[in-house]
Known about the structure:
This protein is α+β, with helices and mostly antiparallel strands. 55% of the residues lie in helices and 9% in strands. The strands form 3 sheets. It has a 5-stranded mixed sheet, sandwiched between helices. Strands 4-10-9 form a 3-stranded antiparallel sheet. Helix 5 crosses helix 11 and helix 13 packs antiparallel against helix 16 (324-336). The structure holds protoporphyrin IX containing FE (HEM). Protoporphyrin IX containing FE binds at residues 76-77, 88, 91, 267, 270-271, 274-275, 278, 338-340, 343, 408-410, 414, 416-418, 421-422. Heme binds at residue 416. One of its GO terms (biological process) is lipid metabolic process.
Amino acid sequence: MLPSVLCNLSNIHDHATTTLKQCGGTFLFKGPWFTNLNYLITSDPMNVHHITSKNFDNYIKGSEFYEIFEILGDGIFNTDSHKWKHSRNILHSLFRQNSFESLVVKTIHKKLHSCLVPLLNNTSELGTVVDLQDIFQRISFDNICSIVLGFDPKSLPNKLIEFPEVAFEKAFNLAEDAIFYRHLVPRFLWKLQKWLQIGRGKTYTECEKIVDQFLHQCISSTFQEQSKVKCTKDDDEPTFNMLKALVEESGMEQIDRKFLRDNALTLLVAGRDTISSSLSWFFWLVSTHPVVEAKILEEIRANFITKEEYRLITSRVENLNKLVYLHGAMCEALRLFPPVPFEHKSAVKSDILPSGHRVNANSMVIYSLYSMGRMEQTWGEDCLEFKPERWVSEKGSIIHIPSYKFIAFNAGPRSCLGKNITFIQMKIMAIALLCNFQFEVVEGHNNVCPCVSVVLHMKHGLKVKVTKRGIIN
Ligand code: HEM
């Protein structure tokens, strides 16, 4: 089956979706005999419910996942059993703290008003075409670094100059490509390349070094600063520092640099690409669906009457929940374009899935989050259409869809810890941008399609023309 994958590599997610539809939602992928590329692939929600929740203990990340994502070390993404549980408990209690949520809101507002809005104002004055995806990646990177490391790498400028290249960010992107490559080639081949330091193996090692250096610098400066006695406290200074909170919450007596490095890197990976990818698809869908755009603006207008009120409302998280249609539009974008397009698990013992398919011990199971959002059985005949209405009940509240069907944030005990802050960030950004600007996808740039990687970015970016608008009096 490998040749068919290689021939369809450029549109692998749609190819997998078509095959899954033809096979009733589950099939066994068989690679050549000399490789270990044999996977059971599924998009059946009942199978996914079984894997992620009902028989959770049987489906682990496993050693193969650990090797592929070795750059993440022992961070929460990469571990199982007690190591995973330990990180999950610590992060879960950090994410629940009000001071953490306030830091997220403050960071986004600051970056929006100091950089993104001025930059788009400047862009609209000059009439220049910009890549919105690049902009979202930069702002998400600056935000997540500020939140997790207390350091803003300032990769997004506030006016239209040549965008700075941040070595850490570039290394991050290249490492991501190398990780995807490891999914496609036999294990011995990528291991050999790494050992010989050739091709992607060499790139990967170089990237890892840059990432390590950057993180160690941030960790060192955080804890050096802690020892300085501060006489005055800046009003604007955040009261929450993720690295310090990780140390406090885990009860470690000495700074465990590896624990901090691995978990900080995991949070950077979790919080940058996912948010920038979902913002890009959301803005593309909204800009190309004027009726939806008009409804979102109408909802904002109806809720936020004056500028003062708008500022007040968007800085209070509970007020964001009033925007039900906007929430529906975001869920719809995440359904059609989940930033994490597939997940893989390793079976500890043999098992039978609800669909009747057998899973052998130590074999790999993949579920396609991308395909799951495009199944007629779950979403109806109009499953390929962008319809925020499908999330809104007759009474005007959000319709809850179980996470094993709306899978973008994963399901069960390993579901995403950042779901709440994701919606907060996306809504604050969407309100600020849609109220102040109109985005027109440039003509001839209709070829918006996903790239082939572990995160569902747009292959050719999102080229738009920006014009100003003011919907709030
Ligand atoms: C659109 C935004 C996001 C999406 C679609 C998303 C999706 C996901 C998915 C699919 C997983 C499961 C990954 C796996 O098991 O391999 C996951 C886990 C996780 N996410 Fe998110 N995520 C988003 C944003 C965030 C943010 C902003 C953070 C925090 C900075 C975050 C933190 C985490 C953590 C810590 C886990 C690990 C949970 C565990 O293994 O127990 N996510 N996310």
